[in-house]
Design goal:
By secondary structure, this protein is of the alpha/beta class. It has 4 domains: about 5-125, 3-Layer(aba) Sandwich (Rossmann fold); about 130-225, Regulator of K+ conductance, C-terminal domain (Alpha-Beta Plaits, 2-Layer Sandwich), CATH 3.30.70; about 235-350, 3-Layer(aba) Sandwich (Rossmann fold); about 370-455, Alpha-Beta Plaits (2-Layer Sandwich), CATH 3.30.70.1450. The protein contains 15 helices and 22 strands. The chain has helices at about 15-25, 40-50, 60-65, 80-95, 105-110, 115-120, 130-140, 175-180, 215-225, 245-255, 265-275, 285-295, 295-300, 310-325, 355-370, and strands spanning about 10, 30-35, 50-55, 75, 100-105, 125, 145-150, 155-160, 185-190, 195, 210-215, 235-240, 260-265, 280-285, 305, 330-335, 350, 375-385, 390-395, 415-425, 425-430, 440-445. The strands form 4 sheets. The protein has a 6-stranded parallel beta sheet with strand order 3-2-1-4-5-6, sandwiched between helices. Strands 14-13-12-15-16-17 form a 6-stranded parallel beta sheet, with helices on both faces. Strands 7-8-11-9-10 form a 5-stranded antiparallel beta sheet. The two termini are about 20 Å apart.
Length: about 450
Protein backbone atom coordinates (compact mmCIF):
# COMPACT_ATOMS: atom_id res chain seq x y z
CA UNK A 1 0.00 0.00 0.00
CA UNK A 2 1.22 3.51 -0.82
CA UNK A 3 2.13 5.96 1.90
CA UNK A 4 -0.45 8.73 2.18
CA UNK A 5 2.02 11.46 1.23
CA UNK A 6 2.57 9.63 -2.06
CA UNK A 7 -1.14 9.56 -2.90
CA UNK A 8 -2.31 12.32 -5.21
CA UNK A 9 -5.84 13.71 -5.07
CA UNK A 10 -7.12 16.30 -7.54
CA UNK A 11 -10.16 18.46 -6.71
CA UNK A 12 -11.93 20.52 -9.37
CA UNK A 13 -13.95 23.30 -7.73
CA UNK A 14 -12.79 25.32 -4.75
CA UNK A 15 -16.23 26.20 -3.39
CA UNK A 16 -17.61 25.23 0.00
CA UNK A 17 -17.48 21.46 -0.59
CA UNK A 18 -14.10 21.63 -2.32
CA UNK A 19 -12.65 23.69 0.52
CA UNK A 20 -13.89 21.28 3.21
CA UNK A 21 -12.56 18.30 1.25
CA UNK A 22 -9.16 19.89 0.64
CA UNK A 23 -8.78 20.87 4.30
CA UNK A 24 -9.60 17.44 5.69
CA UNK A 25 -7.66 15.46 3.10
CA UNK A 26 -4.50 17.55 3.49
CA UNK A 27 -4.88 17.12 7.26
CA UNK A 28 -4.93 13.36 6.64
CA UNK A 29 -1.57 13.66 4.86
CA UNK A 30 -2.48 13.33 1.16
CA UNK A 31 -1.02 15.46 -1.63
CA UNK A 32 -3.84 17.75 -2.78
CA UNK A 33 -4.20 19.77 -5.98
CA UNK A 34 -7.19 22.11 -6.41
CA UNK A 35 -8.24 23.55 -9.77
CA UNK A 36 -10.68 26.45 -10.08
CA UNK A 37 -11.47 29.03 -12.74
CA UNK A 38 -11.73 31.86 -10.20
CA UNK A 39 -8.39 33.50 -9.40
CA UNK A 40 -9.66 34.80 -6.04
CA UNK A 41 -10.69 31.29 -4.98
CA UNK A 42 -7.31 29.89 -6.00
CA UNK A 43 -5.43 32.60 -4.09
CA UNK A 44 -7.59 32.19 -0.98
CA UNK A 45 -7.07 28.42 -0.86
CA UNK A 46 -3.37 28.67 -1.61
CA UNK A 47 -2.84 31.18 1.20
CA UNK A 48 -4.78 29.19 3.80
CA UNK A 49 -3.73 25.58 3.11
CA UNK A 50 -0.60 23.64 2.28
CA UNK A 51 -1.92 22.49 -1.09
CA UNK A 52 -1.22 23.03 -4.79
CA UNK A 53 -3.72 25.52 -6.30
CA UNK A 54 -4.06 26.21 -10.01
CA UNK A 55 -6.33 28.53 -11.96
CA UNK A 56 -7.80 26.79 -14.99
CA UNK A 57 -10.51 24.71 -16.60
CA UNK A 58 -10.79 21.37 -14.84
CA UNK A 59 -12.48 19.80 -17.86
CA UNK A 60 -9.78 20.84 -20.32
CA UNK A 61 -7.73 17.94 -21.64
CA UNK A 62 -4.71 20.19 -22.12
CA UNK A 63 -4.96 21.57 -18.58
CA UNK A 64 -5.24 18.12 -17.03
CA UNK A 65 -2.38 16.77 -19.13
CA UNK A 66 -0.15 19.65 -18.04
CA UNK A 67 -0.95 18.78 -14.43
CA UNK A 68 -0.14 15.07 -14.96
CA UNK A 69 -3.64 13.97 -13.98
CA UNK A 70 -2.74 10.46 -15.12
CA UNK A 71 -0.94 10.13 -11.76
CA UNK A 72 -4.11 10.91 -9.79
CA UNK A 73 -5.19 8.26 -7.30
CA UNK A 74 -8.54 10.05 -6.96
CA UNK A 75 -10.02 12.84 -9.11
CA UNK A 76 -12.96 14.72 -7.54
CA UNK A 77 -15.16 17.24 -9.41
CA UNK A 78 -17.41 19.35 -7.14
CA UNK A 79 -18.13 22.53 -9.11
CA UNK A 80 -21.65 24.00 -9.23
CA UNK A 81 -22.16 22.59 -12.75
CA UNK A 82 -23.20 18.94 -13.16
CA UNK A 83 -22.10 18.97 -16.80
CA UNK A 84 -18.69 20.37 -15.86
CA UNK A 85 -18.25 17.69 -13.19
CA UNK A 86 -19.23 14.86 -15.56
CA UNK A 87 -16.96 16.11 -18.33
CA UNK A 88 -14.06 16.67 -15.92
CA UNK A 89 -14.32 13.12 -14.57
CA UNK A 90 -14.67 11.62 -18.04
CA UNK A 91 -11.58 13.48 -19.27
CA UNK A 92 -9.56 12.54 -16.17
CA UNK A 93 -10.62 8.91 -16.51
CA UNK A 94 -9.61 8.81 -20.18
CA UNK A 95 -6.22 10.31 -19.27
CA UNK A 96 -5.55 7.61 -16.66
CA UNK A 97 -6.87 8.82 -13.27
CA UNK A 98 -7.51 5.71 -11.15
CA UNK A 99 -10.80 6.78 -9.53
CA UNK A 100 -13.20 9.65 -10.23
CA UNK A 101 -15.96 11.19 -8.11
CA UNK A 102 -18.57 13.65 -9.39
CA UNK A 103 -21.00 15.93 -7.60
CA UNK A 104 -24.28 15.62 -9.54
CA UNK A 105 -27.41 17.41 -8.33
CA UNK A 106 -29.79 16.97 -11.27
CA UNK A 107 -32.25 14.16 -10.56
CA UNK A 108 -32.24 12.86 -14.14
CA UNK A 109 -28.44 12.73 -14.25
CA UNK A 110 -28.22 11.06 -10.86
CA UNK A 111 -30.58 8.29 -11.98
CA UNK A 112 -28.08 7.35 -14.71
CA UNK A 113 -25.45 6.31 -12.17
CA UNK A 114 -24.88 2.86 -13.65
CA UNK A 115 -24.29 4.33 -17.10
CA UNK A 116 -21.79 6.86 -15.75
CA UNK A 117 -20.00 4.16 -13.77
CA UNK A 118 -19.93 1.41 -16.42
CA UNK A 119 -19.54 3.49 -19.57
CA UNK A 120 -17.84 6.69 -18.41
CA UNK A 121 -15.75 5.29 -15.57
CA UNK A 122 -17.10 7.55 -12.81
CA UNK A 123 -16.50 5.68 -9.55
CA UNK A 124 -18.95 7.59 -7.36
CA UNK A 125 -21.76 10.12 -7.73
CA UNK A 126 -22.78 12.34 -4.81
CA UNK A 127 -26.01 14.34 -4.72
CA UNK A 128 -25.52 16.68 -1.71
CA UNK A 129 -29.18 17.64 -1.40
CA UNK A 130 -30.43 14.04 -1.48
CA UNK A 131 -27.71 12.94 0.97
CA UNK A 132 -28.70 15.76 3.35
CA UNK A 133 -32.39 14.88 3.07
CA UNK A 134 -31.54 11.26 3.90
CA UNK A 135 -29.56 12.36 6.96
CA UNK A 136 -32.45 14.50 8.22
CA UNK A 137 -34.93 11.69 7.57
CA UNK A 138 -32.86 9.31 9.70
CA UNK A 139 -32.73 11.92 12.47
CA UNK A 140 -36.51 12.23 12.47
CA UNK A 141 -36.97 8.52 13.12
CA UNK A 142 -35.52 8.88 16.65
CA UNK A 143 -36.60 12.14 18.34
CA UNK A 144 -33.76 12.02 20.90
CA UNK A 145 -30.99 11.25 18.37
CA UNK A 146 -28.72 14.06 17.19
CA UNK A 147 -27.20 11.95 14.40
CA UNK A 148 -28.04 8.60 12.82
CA UNK A 149 -25.86 6.73 10.31
CA UNK A 150 -26.55 3.38 8.68
CA UNK A 151 -24.01 0.79 7.59
CA UNK A 152 -23.83 -2.81 6.39
CA UNK A 153 -26.56 -2.11 3.83
CA UNK A 154 -28.98 -0.74 6.46
CA UNK A 155 -28.66 -3.81 8.72
CA UNK A 156 -27.11 -1.83 11.57
CA UNK A 157 -27.13 1.74 12.81
CA UNK A 158 -24.91 4.23 14.60
CA UNK A 159 -26.83 6.67 16.80
CA UNK A 160 -25.54 9.80 18.54
CA UNK A 161 -27.56 10.89 21.58
CA UNK A 162 -27.05 13.69 24.11
CA UNK A 163 -28.26 12.84 27.61
CA UNK A 164 -30.23 15.10 29.93
CA UNK A 165 -30.54 14.70 33.68
CA UNK A 166 -33.84 12.86 33.46
CA UNK A 167 -32.48 10.13 31.16
CA UNK A 168 -32.88 6.62 32.63
CA UNK A 169 -29.30 5.89 31.54
CA UNK A 170 -27.77 8.53 33.82
CA UNK A 171 -26.04 7.12 36.88
CA UNK A 172 -25.88 3.63 35.36
CA UNK A 173 -22.71 1.77 34.44
CA UNK A 174 -22.38 0.06 31.06
CA UNK A 175 -22.65 -3.33 32.79
CA UNK A 176 -25.96 -2.31 34.37
CA UNK A 177 -27.27 -0.96 31.06
CA UNK A 178 -26.40 -4.11 29.13
CA UNK A 179 -27.23 -6.77 31.73
CA UNK A 180 -29.74 -5.39 34.22
CA UNK A 181 -31.67 -3.23 31.76
CA UNK A 182 -31.43 -5.75 28.91
CA UNK A 183 -30.29 -3.23 26.31
CA UNK A 184 -28.73 -5.05 23.35
CA UNK A 185 -26.74 -2.06 22.08
CA UNK A 186 -23.08 -1.14 22.44
CA UNK A 187 -21.95 2.27 23.68
CA UNK A 188 -18.77 2.71 21.61
CA UNK A 189 -17.70 6.22 22.55
CA UNK A 190 -18.54 8.90 25.10
CA UNK A 191 -17.99 12.65 24.83
CA UNK A 192 -17.85 14.31 28.26
CA UNK A 193 -16.98 18.00 28.12
CA UNK A 194 -13.72 18.21 26.17
CA UNK A 195 -12.90 14.54 26.77
CA UNK A 196 -13.62 11.79 24.23
CA UNK A 197 -13.07 8.17 25.30
CA UNK A 198 -13.99 4.54 24.73
CA UNK A 199 -15.96 3.48 27.83
CA UNK A 200 -15.36 0.34 29.88
CA UNK A 201 -17.85 -1.90 31.66
CA UNK A 202 -17.61 0.09 34.90
CA UNK A 203 -17.95 3.49 33.19
CA UNK A 204 -20.91 5.37 34.69
CA UNK A 205 -22.99 7.52 32.35
CA UNK A 206 -23.50 11.16 33.39
CA UNK A 207 -26.01 13.85 32.48
CA UNK A 208 -24.63 15.91 29.59
CA UNK A 209 -22.72 12.98 28.08
CA UNK A 210 -22.92 12.46 24.33
CA UNK A 211 -23.15 8.75 23.55
CA UNK A 212 -22.36 6.92 20.30
CA UNK A 213 -24.23 3.61 20.18
CA UNK A 214 -24.27 0.81 17.62
CA UNK A 215 -26.64 -2.07 17.08
CA UNK A 216 -29.25 -3.62 14.83
CA UNK A 217 -31.88 -1.16 13.62
CA UNK A 218 -34.72 -3.04 15.33
CA UNK A 219 -32.78 -3.16 18.64
CA UNK A 220 -32.81 0.63 18.93
CA UNK A 221 -36.61 0.67 18.86
CA UNK A 222 -36.76 -2.13 21.44
CA UNK A 223 -34.22 -0.38 23.69
CA UNK A 224 -35.92 3.02 23.47
CA UNK A 225 -39.25 1.38 24.27
CA UNK A 226 -37.77 -0.33 27.36
CA UNK A 227 -36.32 3.00 28.47
CA UNK A 228 -39.67 4.71 27.82
CA UNK A 229 -38.01 7.13 25.39
CA UNK A 230 -40.15 8.65 22.59
CA UNK A 231 -40.22 6.55 19.41
CA UNK A 232 -43.65 7.39 18.00
CA UNK A 233 -43.76 7.72 14.19
CA UNK A 234 -43.82 11.24 12.80
CA UNK A 235 -47.29 12.32 11.73
CA UNK A 236 -46.91 16.05 11.10
CA UNK A 237 -43.75 17.80 9.85
CA UNK A 238 -43.27 21.47 9.00
CA UNK A 239 -40.44 22.56 6.68
CA UNK A 240 -39.25 26.16 6.16
CA UNK A 241 -37.76 26.70 2.71
CA UNK A 242 -38.62 25.08 -0.60
CA UNK A 243 -35.27 24.12 -2.09
CA UNK A 244 -34.04 20.75 -3.33
CA UNK A 245 -33.38 19.36 0.15
CA UNK A 246 -36.98 20.14 1.12
CA UNK A 247 -38.24 18.44 -2.04
CA UNK A 248 -36.30 15.23 -1.39
CA UNK A 249 -37.19 15.21 2.32
CA UNK A 250 -40.89 15.75 1.64
CA UNK A 251 -40.84 12.86 -0.85
CA UNK A 252 -39.27 10.55 1.74
CA UNK A 253 -41.66 11.55 4.51
CA UNK A 254 -44.86 11.39 2.45
CA UNK A 255 -43.88 7.88 1.32
CA UNK A 256 -44.02 6.91 5.00
CA UNK A 257 -47.39 8.50 5.68
CA UNK A 258 -46.39 11.80 7.31
CA UNK A 259 -48.36 15.00 6.76
CA UNK A 260 -45.98 17.60 5.30
CA UNK A 261 -46.35 21.39 5.31
CA UNK A 262 -43.72 23.40 3.38
CA UNK A 263 -43.51 27.17 3.94
CA UNK A 264 -41.80 28.98 1.02
CA UNK A 265 -41.87 32.75 0.73
CA UNK A 266 -41.04 32.89 -3.01
CA UNK A 267 -44.28 32.51 -4.97
CA UNK A 268 -42.73 30.91 -8.08
CA UNK A 269 -40.88 28.33 -5.97
CA UNK A 270 -44.01 27.63 -3.95
CA UNK A 271 -46.07 27.03 -7.08
CA UNK A 272 -43.41 24.72 -8.52
CA UNK A 273 -43.24 22.69 -5.31
CA UNK A 274 -47.03 22.42 -5.11
CA UNK A 275 -47.06 21.01 -8.63
CA UNK A 276 -44.19 18.56 -8.01
CA UNK A 277 -45.29 17.38 -4.55
CA UNK A 278 -48.91 16.34 -4.74
CA UNK A 279 -48.76 14.80 -1.26
CA UNK A 280 -47.51 17.94 0.53
CA UNK A 281 -49.26 21.11 1.64
CA UNK A 282 -47.26 24.06 0.23
CA UNK A 283 -47.91 27.57 1.60
CA UNK A 284 -46.45 30.79 0.21
CA UNK A 285 -45.48 32.68 3.36
CA UNK A 286 -42.66 33.45 5.78
CA UNK A 287 -42.22 30.60 8.25
CA UNK A 288 -41.97 32.85 11.33
CA UNK A 289 -45.05 34.79 10.22
CA UNK A 290 -46.87 31.52 9.60
CA UNK A 291 -46.10 30.42 13.17
CA UNK A 292 -48.07 33.46 14.37
CA UNK A 293 -51.17 32.25 12.49
CA UNK A 294 -51.03 28.73 13.95
CA UNK A 295 -53.26 27.78 16.82
CA UNK A 296 -51.69 26.27 19.92
CA UNK A 297 -53.38 23.01 19.02
CA UNK A 298 -51.70 22.99 15.58
CA UNK A 299 -48.31 23.68 17.17
CA UNK A 300 -48.84 20.93 19.75
CA UNK A 301 -49.64 18.49 16.95
CA UNK A 302 -46.51 19.34 14.95
CA UNK A 303 -43.98 16.57 15.57
CA UNK A 304 -40.98 18.17 13.85
CA UNK A 305 -39.80 21.47 12.38
CA UNK A 306 -36.94 21.67 9.86
CA UNK A 307 -35.43 25.01 8.76
CA UNK A 308 -33.87 24.62 5.29
CA UNK A 309 -33.69 28.12 3.80
CA UNK A 310 -30.47 29.50 2.32
CA UNK A 311 -30.05 31.90 5.27
CA UNK A 312 -28.20 30.52 8.31
CA UNK A 313 -29.35 33.25 10.69
CA UNK A 314 -32.98 32.83 9.68
CA UNK A 315 -32.78 29.06 10.06
CA UNK A 316 -31.35 29.30 13.56
CA UNK A 317 -33.86 31.92 14.72
CA UNK A 318 -36.78 29.91 13.30
CA UNK A 319 -35.41 26.72 14.88
CA UNK A 320 -35.01 28.40 18.29
CA UNK A 321 -38.58 29.69 18.08
CA UNK A 322 -39.84 26.20 17.20
CA UNK A 323 -37.90 24.76 20.15
CA UNK A 324 -39.43 27.40 22.44
CA UNK A 325 -42.84 26.13 21.33
CA UNK A 326 -41.80 22.65 22.55
CA UNK A 327 -41.96 21.02 19.12
CA UNK A 328 -40.45 17.57 19.68
CA UNK A 329 -37.77 17.51 16.97
CA UNK A 330 -36.12 20.61 15.51
CA UNK A 331 -33.46 20.57 12.79
CA UNK A 332 -31.65 23.55 11.27
CA UNK A 333 -29.50 23.70 8.17
CA UNK A 334 -26.33 25.80 8.47
CA UNK A 335 -23.39 26.65 6.22
CA UNK A 336 -21.07 28.35 8.72
CA UNK A 337 -20.40 26.44 11.95
CA UNK A 338 -19.29 29.66 13.70
CA UNK A 339 -22.95 30.72 13.80
CA UNK A 340 -23.75 27.83 16.14
CA UNK A 341 -22.46 30.05 18.96
CA UNK A 342 -25.87 31.74 19.07
CA UNK A 343 -27.52 28.52 20.25
CA UNK A 344 -28.02 28.16 24.02
CA UNK A 345 -25.82 25.51 25.64
CA UNK A 346 -28.87 23.43 26.59
CA UNK A 347 -30.47 23.57 23.14
CA UNK A 348 -31.57 20.27 21.59
CA UNK A 349 -31.66 21.64 18.05
CA UNK A 350 -29.97 19.30 15.56
CA UNK A 351 -27.91 21.01 12.88
CA UNK A 352 -26.92 19.75 9.46
CA UNK A 353 -24.79 21.14 6.65
CA UNK A 354 -25.16 20.16 3.01
CA UNK A 355 -21.49 20.86 2.47
CA UNK A 356 -20.37 18.75 5.42
CA UNK A 357 -22.68 15.88 4.48
CA UNK A 358 -21.32 15.82 0.91
CA UNK A 359 -17.73 16.15 2.09
CA UNK A 360 -18.17 13.35 4.66
CA UNK A 361 -19.58 11.00 2.02
CA UNK A 362 -16.77 11.77 -0.41
CA UNK A 363 -14.13 11.52 2.33
CA UNK A 364 -15.44 8.17 3.44
CA UNK A 365 -15.48 6.83 -0.09
CA UNK A 366 -12.04 8.28 -0.83
CA UNK A 367 -10.55 6.69 2.28
CA UNK A 368 -12.13 3.37 1.31
CA UNK A 369 -10.46 3.56 -2.11
CA UNK A 370 -7.11 4.68 -0.77
CA UNK A 371 -6.98 2.31 2.19
CA UNK A 372 -8.28 -0.80 0.50
CA UNK A 373 -5.30 -3.00 -0.18
CA UNK A 374 -5.43 -6.71 -0.81
CA UNK A 375 -7.51 -7.37 2.32
CA UNK A 376 -10.06 -5.88 4.71
CA UNK A 377 -11.63 -3.41 2.26
CA UNK A 378 -13.02 -0.25 3.86
CA UNK A 379 -16.73 -0.20 2.99
CA UNK A 380 -17.54 3.18 4.54
CA UNK A 381 -16.24 5.74 7.01
CA UNK A 382 -17.97 8.19 9.35
CA UNK A 383 -16.11 11.14 10.87
CA UNK A 384 -17.63 12.73 13.97
CA UNK A 385 -16.70 15.53 16.37
CA UNK A 386 -14.56 17.24 13.69
CA UNK A 387 -12.70 14.00 13.01
CA UNK A 388 -11.90 13.13 16.65
CA UNK A 389 -14.06 10.01 16.37
CA UNK A 390 -14.10 7.74 13.33
CA UNK A 391 -16.28 4.73 12.66
CA UNK A 392 -14.90 2.51 9.89
CA UNK A 393 -16.82 -0.32 8.26
CA UNK A 394 -14.61 -3.18 7.07
CA UNK A 395 -15.35 -6.20 4.92
CA UNK A 396 -13.20 -8.95 6.44
CA UNK A 397 -10.92 -10.93 4.13
CA UNK A 398 -10.00 -14.59 4.65
CA UNK A 399 -6.32 -13.57 4.95
CA UNK A 400 -6.82 -11.74 8.25
CA UNK A 401 -4.60 -13.28 10.92
CA UNK A 402 -7.11 -12.61 13.74
CA UNK A 403 -9.89 -14.82 12.37
CA UNK A 404 -11.67 -17.42 14.52
CA UNK A 405 -10.02 -16.26 17.75
CA UNK A 406 -12.24 -15.30 20.73
CA UNK A 407 -12.12 -11.52 21.15
CA UNK A 408 -11.15 -11.89 24.82
CA UNK A 409 -7.87 -13.44 23.64
CA UNK A 410 -7.05 -10.50 21.35
CA UNK A 411 -5.33 -7.42 22.71
CA UNK A 412 -7.21 -4.33 21.53
CA UNK A 413 -5.27 -1.07 21.34
CA UNK A 414 -6.27 1.86 23.55
CA UNK A 415 -9.15 4.05 22.31
CA UNK A 416 -10.26 1.46 19.75
CA UNK A 417 -13.35 -0.70 19.92
CA UNK A 418 -15.12 -3.29 17.82
CA UNK A 419 -18.64 -1.91 17.63
CA UNK A 420 -20.57 -4.47 15.59
CA UNK A 421 -20.19 -7.70 13.64
CA UNK A 422 -22.63 -8.42 10.81
CA UNK A 423 -22.74 -12.03 9.67
CA UNK A 424 -25.34 -13.62 7.37
CA UNK A 425 -27.73 -10.68 7.84
CA UNK A 426 -27.44 -10.97 11.63
CA UNK A 427 -26.08 -8.09 13.72
CA UNK A 428 -23.90 -9.22 16.64
CA UNK A 429 -22.94 -6.99 19.58
CA UNK A 430 -19.41 -8.31 20.21
CA UNK A 431 -18.69 -10.02 23.53
CA UNK A 432 -15.57 -11.79 24.77
CA UNK A 433 -16.46 -15.19 23.29
CA UNK A 434 -17.41 -13.87 19.83
CA UNK A 435 -15.16 -14.46 16.81
CA UNK A 436 -14.37 -12.54 13.63
CA UNK A 437 -14.87 -14.71 10.55
CA UNK A 438 -14.01 -14.30 6.87
CA UNK A 439 -16.85 -12.56 5.06
CA UNK A 440 -18.01 -10.64 8.14
CA UNK A 441 -18.69 -6.92 8.03
CA UNK A 442 -17.40 -5.16 11.15
CA UNK A 443 -17.68 -1.62 12.47
CA UNK A 444 -14.68 -0.24 14.35
CA UNK A 445 -14.64 2.91 16.52
CA UNK A 446 -11.39 4.86 16.93
CA UNK A 447 -10.63 8.05 18.87
CA UNK A 448 -7.95 10.51 17.70
CA UNK A 449 -6.48 7.83 15.45
CA UNK A 450 -6.80 6.79 11.82
CA UNK A 451 -6.51 3.18 10.70
CA UNK A 452 -6.27 1.59 7.28
CA UNK A 453 -6.88 -2.08 8.08
CA UNK A 454 -8.85 -4.08 10.62
CA UNK A 455 -5.64 -5.56 12.02
CA UNK A 456 -4.55 -2.04 13.04
CA UNK A 457 -6.89 -2.16 16.06
CA UNK A 458 -5.01 -5.07 17.64
CA UNK A 459 -1.69 -4.83 19.48
CA UNK A 460 1.05 -7.22 18.37
Amino acid sequence: MKHRSDMKIFIVGGGKIGRVLAGQLVHDGYEITVIDKDENVVNSLGNSMDIICLQGNGASCATLQDMSVENADIFIAVTDSDEMNILSCLTAHMLGAKHTIARIRDVDYARQYKFYRDRLGISMIINPELATAMEIYRLLRFPLATRVEVFAKNRAELVEMSLTGDSPLCGKSLIEINQNMGINLLICAVVRGDEVFVPKGNTVIHSGDILYMTGAAEEFRKAFKKLKLPIKPLQSVMIAGGGRISYYLAELLTQHGAKITIIERNEDDAVRLAEDLAGANVICDDALAYFDTMSQSDIDNTDAFIALTENDEYNLVAAMFAESQEIGKVVSRIKMKSRLKVLPSDSKICVTSREDVAADRILGYSRSLLNAGDKDAVESLYRLMDGKIEFIEFKVDEKDKNLDIPLKELNMKKNMLLGCIIRDNKTIIPRGDDLIKAGDTVLVATINQQIARLEDIFAL
